[in-house]
Specification:
alpha/beta; Isopropylmalate Dehydrogenase; 2 domains; 10-stranded mixed β-sheet; two-stranded antiparallel ribbon; 22% strand; binds 3-isopropylmalic acid; binds manganese (II) ion
Length: 365
């Protein structure tokens, strides 16, 4: 029997409760297919601050290094909001993990099932079939990681500085991820930039244009300024198939994509690098996009779908088990379609709790 070895970082808020049911589902579906799982749990985020004084303990990094993938819950919450920004759970755990494991490619599917149209704030006649797109965001470069500083000027004024840097090689490797994603979909990529203002964007646009012309002439490439992209997403999201963005633009646009796709409780993501795991597949971190939902944490009513779908992405990317991943995805979809739903996506139907939702997904597998 083959064993899948991954690190489990439940984190804060609803993280542990949605992680628990996700692991049950993974265990069940994998054992049905003759795979075993070998997980090591590690502390991260606010709960790690409480236990060990830091959001990303060294031991957690080591456990991740010894694994073939990281299944991540979510981090943060009101309890830690008074800490200095650089020490807060989100910034002090997620960003260093991304950098440490060189997870430069963030894949965020924007999927809205037709049955959940009511969950989208967009007028439903604009998206009669729902939404199906994906954002490919560069994750370890740009203004997030450039030099930062702050100083008091001679005249007493205060100046702060963030630097946005991109190298050609960084742009090419994320363009490659967008190309691969597009090939498996509709062969359309829209590259987002601000080339009318930013030098990094001028380089971005040049490199992306040349990269696609030389390597993927069959893919239809377009370019859009980020402000227009934000507007077009709200106006007609289905004009997009694959969005390719630098780090900061992708942060902003993927939140917008998330909200037009209805509940954050449905959104999963993958962060991948070039390094391969012991199986020769990409090492990656897989996490829901919805956050810790402190208002409902511990109540057992959170939507587990985003975490379960993140687990499916892990099977697909880091373990090469696309078939099993698709089974899980279909089962989530059918469960939602059949009307078994947690409160965030219930819309007049009787809401079920996390356990019942997970059991319904499990029973369809
Ligand atoms: C995200 C988050 C992070 C980011 C924060 C928590 C640092 O917003 O994953 O989109 O800005 O990248
Ligand atoms: Mn974000």
């Amino acid at each position: 029997m083959k064993t899948l070895k991954f690190a489990v970082l439940p984190g804060d808020g609803i993280g542990p409760e949605v992680m628990e049911v996700t692991l049950e589902i993974l265990e069940k579906v994998l054992s049905d297919n003759a795979y075993a799982i070998d997980t090591t749990e590690a502390a991260v985020g606010g709960s790690a601050i409480d236990q060990f004084g830091v959001a990303l303990p060294e031991n957690t990094v080591r456990i991740c290094e010894d694994s073939d993938a990281i299944l991540f819950g979510s981090v943060g919450g009101p309890k830690w909001e008074s800490l200095p920004p650089a020490e807060q759970p989100e910034r002090a755990s997620l960003l260093p993990i991304r950098k440490h494991f060189k997870l430069f490619a963030n894949i965020r599917p924007g999927l809205l099932y037709r049955e959940l149209l009511a969950a989208s704030p967009l007028k439903n006649e604009r998206i009669p079939e729902g939404i199906d797109m994906v954002c490919i965001r560069e994750l370890t470069g740009g203004i997030y990681f450039g030099q930062k500083s702050r100083r008091v000027l001679d005249d007493g004024d205060i100046e702060a500085l963030d630097t946005m840097i991109y190298k050609k090689s960084e742009i090419e490797r994320i363009a490659e991820v967008a190309a691969q994603t597009a090939l498996a979909r509709n062969k359309q990529v829209c590259s987002v930039c601000k080339a009318n203002v930013l030098t990094t964007s001028v380089l971005w646009r040049e490199v992306v244009t040349e990269f696609f012309a030389n390597n993927y002439p069959e893919i239809e490439l377009s370019h859009m300024y980020v402000d227009n992209a934000a507007m077009q997403l709200a106006r007609d999201p289905n004009q997009f198939d694959v969005l390719l963005t630098e780090n900061m633009f992708g942060d902003i646009l993927s939140d917008e994509m998330g909200v037009i796709c209805g509940s954050l409780g449905m959104l999963c993501s993958a962060s991948l690098g070039l390094e391969t795991n012991s199986l020769g597949n990409p090492f990656g971190l897989f996490e829901p996009a919805g956050g810790t939902a402190p208002d409902i944490a511990g109540m057992g009513i959170a939507n587990p779908c985003a975490q379960i779908l993140s687990g499916a992405m892990m099977l697909r990317f880091s373990f090469g088990l696309s078939d099993i991943a698709s089974k899980i995805e279909n089962s989530v979809k059918e469960t939602v379609q059949s009307g078994i739903r947690t409160g965030d996506i219930a819309f007049g139907l009787d809401a079920v709790n996390t356990r019942t939702m997970a059991d319904a997904i499990l029973s369809r597998l």
